[in-house]
Structure formats: structure tokens, C-alpha cells
Design brief:
By secondary structure, this protein is α+β, with helices and mostly antiparallel strands. It is 62% helix and 6% strand.
């Protein structure tokens, strides 16, 4: 009793301390896989996220206005109108086309629809106005007899996006871009997962009525899951501080294993070997997940800690807390399956052998998501009308912002230098404008009948408000170049390379994990029993790869991650079938059905990342369970 009370007090303190330390979960998909300690990969993440806030709004209707505040940027151009010149004005100044510059200034000044970025007495030739107009990103294109306009709006949060989506309803306006796809994908996935959870709960209720004649058994099951989740969350929070949302997705595996432990306890009360079976099951599964710590994948390291400590929490709950609950009446139903054993093995090995020759891999993150029809049509139309160039990224390094700008100004492409100039370029601009003033300013003053109050000074580029948009760190910026050049790279290609590297790393870890588990099982049960326990999970893993490959499914990182979970689930089935009493096969069956059905439902979700995981685990645990029926017989089980 004292041990139980001390355990509860420790757990409560542990949970409270972790929750006080918890931070908002990380939702950026790239940060789940890319090594945060690599500066190069950090830069790739930042560049990939540039588009994660931009929505392309286009159509033949009136477009929503951009709600961004550019007042601080306009103030720079208003105070330093001669420092920043468009390429066209620089060309005219270099060619000494002063009359042309004067005529354009007069035309702009007397235009009733014109506007002045800077006061006329400070900027008589409207250099600031011309510079701003040259940066206007709104485009108008005629396509199939219709005139389309496009604006590129930056979205800061979900509320802004929801407001924008509401604004365009019922109009001939289309939205494209990463934020739009993320919003609709997450909304649809949430609905699908809620439905799956509801079906899973109903399934558990049915199983409880069949095997226990009461749904009261669900109380300790739910409490064990909740306790395990808190234990895993608390440990992971204290180790990593900020968790990724994918860590929570993978933590659903705790549900199946928590159910296993509670059911085996109820069915195995009185069995002297129950505690040994529970302990060995916990140790082997924890060992499988802890191996992932040695991967170089951030989300895998988080999953390793979360799941390992979660399983430890469930195990401790069963050992210390579950004895306080009344043991429900269990029904020992005679569940039997009749399969032609030789035919079963023949089918399994045929699929594995044929599948090996058809294995293909998919490492493109874009292919893990299939957009809804209306978004796909909008993307297709946007590509046809505006033919946007994906472009390449070129990193520019320098000791400071001014040095970086000097380098950028010799590069053809889009970057910070399109908004602010280096000290060298500002000096050139001021010299060109000064010569214009000496030659033409008096004549312009007489034509307008005003006296200009001009001043020239350098603007410190390191203070420019847009620096944070282009500077990846204090010494690195980026330029988008229109075509491949020396040193440039494509973001999509780089991400694909990273995902491929992570997939290969995971594939290499898999046999290491199994080898370590086999050694651990051999130490607990001996070599012969360890072999019996291991065979069915191995068949499940190989068959899953074979059948997916045979049906032309290209394996991605999430298929491979699912194989780790197959090992964890299937080893439990084998351990409890081998060491439990005859009635323990009922607990194994309930556990298998609940796990298989849950992941089968997940395989139908629209988000391929989740469906890949669900399909992989469903196939693997099903084949592993059926294999265990042939390969493993308990000493107490009637053959």
C-alpha cells in the first residue's frame, strides 16, 4: 500500500512539473525530420517556410486588399528618395536623359490620379514613387478571354486565413498556396480522426460486452491509456521542451499496448508467470523504441522517449494501481481459426519473394498529400494563367548586411537588394542624382514655381525593416535566381534528398532493433523460445513490404516507421501466447482486433502520411497474429 501511495505522489509531482514546462507543440512538418543542429538544413527549413505564409489570391473579381502594414518601409523611401532608384531611372541618369526625366516628373506631378511616395519638395523627380511602382507585385494577365489579377498575401495566423476564405466565397476568386492546403488538410483530417475514434470506442464497447459482459472494464483501460500518455508526455517534455505534433500522432500506439497490459492482467490473475510476461513485453517494446534515440531524426527521438516512458507508465499502472480495481468476470470463449497451414506459408513466402523484386521508394514530401478537387483545380488554373517560376535559391554570405547587399547587386535574381541598396550603390545613386540636380533642377523649379528643400545622406542598410524576411542569420541571405547557377539549389529537391537520407537511416536501424530485441529475448527466455517469439513479427514485417510492393505502392518514410510499430505490437502477441494460460489467447485476440481495426480505419484517411502508417501496421499486425497461431502454442493451451 505504501509503495502505491508513494508512486501516485511521485507521478502527480512529475505530471505537474512537466505541464508547467510544456510549450505549444511544433506544427512545422520539416522540423520533424531535418536535423536542427545542421546550419545548412536550418536554412533549408527557413526557405521552405517562406511559402508557408503566402497565399496567392487571383480571379476576375475584385481582390481582397493586403492587410500588411508597410508604413515603416514607406518611411524609409520617403526620407531617402534619391538613395534607391529603379533600374530604369538609373539607366536614364547614366545616359544623362535629363529632359526625359523632367517630363516624366511633370507628368506624374500633374496627374490627378497619381500619388507621391515622398513630398515633392524632397523628391521633385518622383524617384521614390517610381521605385515603389517598380516593386508592385500585383499582376494582370489575360487568359482565354478573361482578365485575371493576382495578389500575394502574407497570412500570419489561422484567423486571418479563415477571414480570407470567407471573403472570397461566392466570388470568382481562387486561393492557392501552402497555408490554404494545410488548412483544409488539417480540417479534414481532424474530422476523419474524430470519426475513427468514435468507431473505435464503439468497437471496444462491443468487445467488452462479448468478453466481460460489462462495459465497466473500460474504466481501467481508459485510465491506463491516460496514465501512460501523461507519463510519456511528461518525460518527453522534460527532455525536449517542445514536442512535435507528429509525436502525438505516433503516440496512439500506446492505446493498443495499454489495452494489452490491462486485458492480460484480468485474464492472467493467479498465473505466476504473468508478471514475468508483462515485464518482458514491456522491456522488449521499450528497447525497440529506445533504439530510435540513436537516429538523427528529431521526431523519432521524441517518439522513442514518449512511447518508452508511456509504456513504462502503463506497466507501473498495471502493477501498482490496477490491483485496486475489482477483477471483472472474464469469459473464456473458444476462439479458433482454421487455415490450411501449408497454403498460408506458401502465400506468405510467395508474396515476400515477388515483392522484393518490385520494391520502389517515394521520397517526395508533396506526394504524401492529395489535395481536394477544388484546390487542385485552383492550382492548375494558377499555373496556366501566370506560369510562375519555381526558381532556384542562392545563399549569399558576408560579414554584414552591407557586404551581402554588394554581392547581391551583382546577381540576377530577387532578394533584399531589390528593396534596399548597399552603401556603394547608394553613393552611386546620390552622385547620379546630384548631377541631375546641377543640370536641370533650376529649370524644374521655375516650371513648378517652387523652391525645393533637398538633402542627401546615406541610409544604414542594417536597419531596413525587411531584413528579417531575407536574412537567414546575421551573415547569410538568399536570392531567388530564375535558373540554375553555380551554388544554387532547388528547395523541393533538397527536401527530397533529406527524406531519402532519413528513410535509409530508418531502414538501417530496423535490423539493428530486431537484433537487439532477439538478444534481449534470448536472455529472458532462452534461444529456442526467443526464436519462436521473433518469427511471426519478422514474417509480418517482410510480408507488409512484399504486399505493398507487389501492388505498386511506393514505400515512403512513414511506411518504414510503421515497421517499427509492427515489431512492438507483434512481439506482445507472441510473448503472451507463449507464456500465458489457455484463456490468455482471448486477451491476445481482443488486443489484436482492436489494434488492427483502428489502424485499418486510419488507412482510409485522406492524408497520405497517416494512411501510409495505418495501412502498414494493419497488414503487419494481421499477418503476425495469424502466424503466431501456427507457430506458438502455450504449454497450457490444448493443441
Amino acid at each position: 500500500m505504501i509503495k502505491r501511495i508513494l508512486f501516485l505522489i511521485f507521478s502527480i509531482i512529475f505530471f505537474v512539473f512537466a505541464f508547467l514546462s510544456a510549450k505549444t507543440p511544433e506544427a512545422d512538418l520539416m522540423k520533424a525530420f531535418i536535423n536542427p543542429h545542421s546550419q545548412i538544413e536550418k536554412n533549408i527549413v527557413k526557405l521552405a517556410n517562406l511559402s508557408s505564409k503566402t497565399v496567392n489570391v487571383f480571379g476576375v473579381d475584385e481582390l481582397p486588399l493586403n492587410n500588411q502594414d508597410f508604413s515603416d518601409i514607406l518611411e524609409v523611401y520617403r526620407e531617402y528618395p534619391a538613395n534607391f532608384l529603379s533600374e530604369r531611372k538609373r539607366t536614364l541618369l547614366k545616359g544623362r536623359k535629363y529632359k526625359e526625366l523632367e517630363n516624366e516628373a511633370l507628368e506624374g506631378i500633374f496627374n490627378p490620379l497619381g500619388f507621391y511616395a515622398a513630398p515633392i519638395d524632397k523628391d521633385p523627380y518622383l524617384f521614390a514613387t517610381d521605385f515603389l511602382m517598380s516593386k508592385n507585385k500585383n499582376e494582370t494577365v489575360e487568359f482565354e478571354g478573361k482578365e485575371y489579377q493576382v495578389s500575394h498575401l502574407k497570412i500570419q495566423n489561422t484567423k486571418e486565413l479563415e477571414s480570407l476564405i470567407e471573403d472570397v466565397k461566392g466570388k470568382d476568386i481562387y486561393l492557392t498556396g501552402t497555408p490554404v492546403h494545410s488548412y483544409f488538410a488539417s480540417k479534414k483530417s481532424s474530422k476523419e480522426i474524430n470519426v475513427i475514434c468514435l468507431i473505435s470506442i464503439l468497437g471496444l464497447i462491443v468487445l467488452s460486452k462479448i468478453f466481460f459482459r460489462s462495459v465497466k472494464v473500460l474504466t481501467p483501460v481508459i485510465l491506463s491509456i491516460f496514465f501512460g500518455f501523461l507519463f510519456g508526455f511528461s518525460a518527453c517534455t522534460l527532455v525536449f521542451g517542445k514536442l512535435h505534433v507528429l509525436t502525438f500522432v505516433f503516440s496512439t500506439s500506446l492505446i493498443g499496448i495499454s489495452l494489452d497490459y490491462v486485458l492480460h492482467y484480468f485474464y492472467g490473475v493467479g498465473d505466476k508467470r504473468l508478471k514475468t510476461s508483462l515485464t518482458s513485453s514491456m522491456l522488449t517494446t521499450v528497447a525497440a523504441f529506445l533504439t530510435l534515440i540513436f537516429s538523427n531524426i528529431e521526431v523519432l527521438r521524441q517518439i522513442a522517449i514518449f512511447t518508452s516512458f508511456g509504456l513504462l507508465g502503463v506497466y507501473l499502472f498495471v502493477i501498482f494501481i490496477l490491483p485496486w480495481f475489482k477483477i471483472p468476470e472474464v469469459r473464456n470463449l473458444n476462439i479458433s481459426f482454421k487455415f490450411p497451414r501449408k497454403l498460408f506459408y506458401l502465400a506468405i513466402f510467395t508474396v515476400i519473394v515477388l515483392g522484393v523484386f518490385n520494391i520502389k521508394f517515394e521520397d517526395n514530401l508533396k506526394n504524401l498529400y492529395v489535395p481536394p478537387k477544388h484546390l487542385l483545380e485552383a492550382e492548375t488554373l494558377y499555373q496556366k494563367v501566370f506560369t510562375p517560376q519555381a526558381g532556384e535559391f542562392l545563399l549569399v554570405k558576408g560579414a554584414n548586411v552591407d557586404e551581402i547587399l554588394e554581392k547581391e547587386e551583382s546577381i540576377e535574381g530577387f532578394g533584399l537588394k531589390d528593396f534596399v541598396s548597399s552603401t556603394k550603390r547608394q553613393n552611386e545613386n546620390l552622385a547620379l542624382v546630384e548631377e541631375l540636380y546641377n543640370k536641370d533642377l533650376v529649370e524644374l523649379e521655375s516650371k513648378l514655381g517652387v523652391k525645393f528643400n533637398l538633402s542627401s545622406k546615406l541610409y544604414p542598410a542594417e536597419n531596413f525593416p525587411l531584413n528579417s524576411e531575407f536574412m537567414l542569420d546575421n551573415t547569410t541571405s538568399f536570392v531567388m535566381v530564375p535558373k540554375k547557377t553555380d551554388g544554387s539549389f532547388n528547395i523541393a529537391d533538397e527536401i527530397s534528398k533529406i527524406l531519402k537520407k532519413l528513410r535509409i537511416t530508418s531502414m538501417k536501424l530496423l535490423p539493428l532493433v530486431f537484433g537487439m530485441l532477439f538478444i534481449l529475448l534470448s536472455c529472458i527466455y532462452g534461444l529456442k523460445k526467443a526464436l519462436k517469439i521473433s518469427l511471426s513479427p519478422i514474417l509480418g514485417v517482410f510480408f507488409t513490404v512484399g504486399i505493398l510492393s507487389l501492388f505498386g505502392v511506393k514505400l515512403n518514410l512513414f511506411h518504414i516507421l510503421g515497421l517499427f510499430l509492427i515489431l512492438g505490437f507483434s512481439l506482445d502477441y507472441s510473448i503472451f501466447r507463449l507464456n500465458g494460460e489457455e484463456k490468455s489467447k482471448n486477451a491476445v485476440f481482443i488486443s489484436f482486433v482492436s489494434t488492427a481495426v483502428s489502424f485499418l480505419l486510419l488507412s482510409f484517411t485522406s492524408f497520405k502520411l497517416i494512411s501510409s502508417l495505418g495501412l502498414t501496421i494493419f497488414i503487419g499486425v494481421t499477418v503476425s497474429y495469424i502466424s503466431s497461431l501456427f507457430m506458438i502454442k502455450s504449454e497450457h493451451e490444448k493443441i
